[in-house]
Amino acid sequence: MKKIGNSTYKTEKNPSITYFASAVGEKEGQGPLGQYFHKVFLDMYMGETTWEKAESRLQKTVAQMVLNQSKKQAKDIDLIFAGDLLNQCTASAFGMKDMNIPYMGQYGACSTMIQSIISAVTAIESGGASACLCVTSSHFCSAERQYRYPLEYGGFRTPTAQWTVTGAGGCLLEPSGAGQTVSYIVPGKIVDLGIKDANNMGAAMAPAAADTISAFFRDTSTTPQDYDMIFTGDLGAVGSKLLAELLRKDGYETEGRHKDCGAMIFDCEDKQVCAGGSGCGCCASVLCSYILKSMEKKELNNVLVAATGALLSPTTSGQNQSIPGIAHLINIVNL
Amino acid sequence: MKKIGNSTYKTEKNPSITYFASAVGEKEGQGPLGQYFHKVFLDMYMGETTWEKAESRLQKTVAQMVLNQSKKQAKDIDLIFAGDLLNQCTASAFGMKDMNIPYMGQYGACSTMIQSIISAVTAIESGGASACLCVTSSHFCSAERQYRYPLEYGGFRTPTAQWTVTGAGGCLLEPSGAGQTVSYIVPGKIVDLGIKDANNMGAAMAPAAADTISAFFRDTSTTPQDYDMIFTGDLGAVGSKLLAELLRKDGYETEGRHKDCGAMIFDCEDKQVCAGGSGCGCCASVLCSYILKSMEKKELNNVLVAATGALLSPTTSGQNQSIPGIAHLINIVNL
């Protein structure tokens, strides 16, 4: 691939998403995108004994669906790129450990799915890999007890708090030109404007999203109007508004051209989910359902997907540190 | 790059380690490799107010030393690959957040440095990147309180327990052919033989190391005798013995050809460190000091470095899960 401008890379081997699958929990299944998901689990344990094992089950489920669709076996896959929000990324390690495929653990918080796809695209562009699997997940219950309070505590949520999506998305990247092709990638920089409210991550991540998206428009001399839609990972309602303002300051009007996976996945009348969904499984499950299915049907032909991540931990928040944000972007086209 | 056999990739653009730096704590500075480190901190806080911030300081220190040596500025670096052991990889995010360089967070437990170098090599081989920075770290105090007990508790250690290294290593990869060249890479598979003792990670990781190293010998039709030395990341004394036995079963004799970074970094008479050092900073600081300096002096000209990782978390151990191991390998040569 070739570097263009300061931050963007143009692919040259047609790295394409040839197969994809998504699996979510009941709440996501009942949401506006319910019909698009490949599998909806009605039980939050998904047949396992703990929520953490359930999250690994989500990853295994989508990985197996992708392999089944592709009629490939483990030995046909060169690399797995996977990640999640659990401490030491164990949902992925335990989800993928029996696959018998070389494994590269990724961590970009809620941006991990797009970071994984960027890594897979790079491996294909290197000439070395010819099939890479990307999988990421999150689970409301495993995240809630790790990051916030035991669920039994029943704590109230602030209006800006996002709801961790129970879901996983998985996809296969091949240098085929069939399927949906990743034509540009933009690995993002960490942006930290000093926001410290861990219940308002949309505000912490929006500047990073604006930074990456603006860089892409500058590097490619394009504007929002050149794309069918710009999807962000999980800025939610609050962060989305902020992103529009920031891009407007850079001279880019996104009115009618921007949707946020976190805002799309839940019913906005549902007070419980407040500002929208989040988690590594949010962008992953929406990409590997609604977005790619809409591209297959040619309802969308040229989209940007910019997943955002908040690179904090309970420890850094406890030590009164700010929340660094990051956003990685890919441009997917129907060739 | 080109895939060779089942697991190995041969590089084609001479991706080379052109600059490197290491920084460690006082205990490591007093150990057998003390003279090789670029910087020894005598204070475990390194001028910061918390151990977690101190670990980020280690990363900043080595990154800045590498940039200074190379006379490059942030804008000359395409990508950072970094990782650590803290929850949500925050030592890296906070260490690298002000660099203003695109950032890809890596997680492979103690194998993260070699995973990062593999990612950097892949980015260079893709033709897209021309300078990538790799940095990983660990800190005894931040790890101990996150993984085991508050230090004040003064818990006894089992004889097989390893001691988390306080240290970081950083290096710059460029397609130059100058410096030390990464000629082959092997991204490892997760191997889980059911070991559950979190105080005996060497035993959990040795099968993964054997799997990756054997795969490399098979794919390249070489033997241990073709290399000046095989370095493993941090199997420690217990895991090293096990690795030798496992490789012998595969027909490879490593007697006199194998050293373990975890066993090298501390004085083996020091009862406190028991089975040796571990952590993302162990392999990183030994690679970016003793190993690469020995190669510069032509005392070593052709080495394998296989870093191992134990992909567990306190939660998975608490849920009685086994410890999945992984090992990533690179072959570094003086051209």
Oligomer: homodimer
CATH C-level of the largest domain in chain A: Alpha Beta
Could you list the spans of chain A in which at least 5 consecutive residues all have pLDDT below 50? Answer: none
The proportion of residues forming helix of chain A, as a percent range, comes to 25-40%
Please give the domain count of chain A: 2
Tally the beta strands of chain A: 15
Report the β-strand fraction of chain A as a percent range.
15-25%
Q: Note the gap between the termini of chain A.
A: 17 Å
> What is the CATH topology descriptor of the largest domain in chain A?
Peroxisomal Thiolase, Chain A, domain 1
Most extensive interface, chain pair and sizes = A-B, 65 and 65 residues
Global morphology of chain A: globular
CATH superfamily of the largest domain in chain A: Stage V sporulation protein AD
Run of helices and strands of chain A: EEEHEHEHEHEHEEEHEHEHEHEHE
In the CATH hierarchy, the architecture of the largest domain in chain A is 3-Layer(aba) Sandwich
Textual characterization of the structure:
- The structure is a homodimer of 335-residue chains.
- Chain A is of the alpha/beta class and 335 residues long.
- Chain A folds into two domains: 2-174, Stage V sporulation protein AD (Peroxisomal Thiolase, Chain A, domain 1), CATH 3.40.47; 180-334, Stage V sporulation protein AD (Peroxisomal Thiolase, Chain A, domain 1, 3-Layer(aba) Sandwich).
- The first copy, chain A, is 34% helix and 23% strand.
- The first copy, chain A, has ten helices and 15 strands.
- The first copy, chain A, has helices spanning 26-29, 51-70, 90-96, 112-125, 140-147, 201-220, 236-249, 261-264, 280-296, 314-318, and strands spanning 2-4, 8-10, 16-24, 39-40, 79-83, 103-105, 132-138, 163-164, 167-174, 180-186, 229-232, 258-260, 277-278, 302-310, 325-334.
- In chain A, strands 1, 2, 3, 4, 5, 6, 7, 9, 10, 11, 12, 14 and 15 form a 13-stranded mixed β-sheet that branches.
- In chain A, helix 2 (51-70) packs across helix 3 (90-96) and helix 6 (201-220) packs parallel to helix 7.
- Chain A starts with a strand and ends with a strand.
- Chains A and B meet through helix 3, strand 6, helix 4 and helix 10 of A and helix 3, strand 6, helix 4 and helix 10 of B.
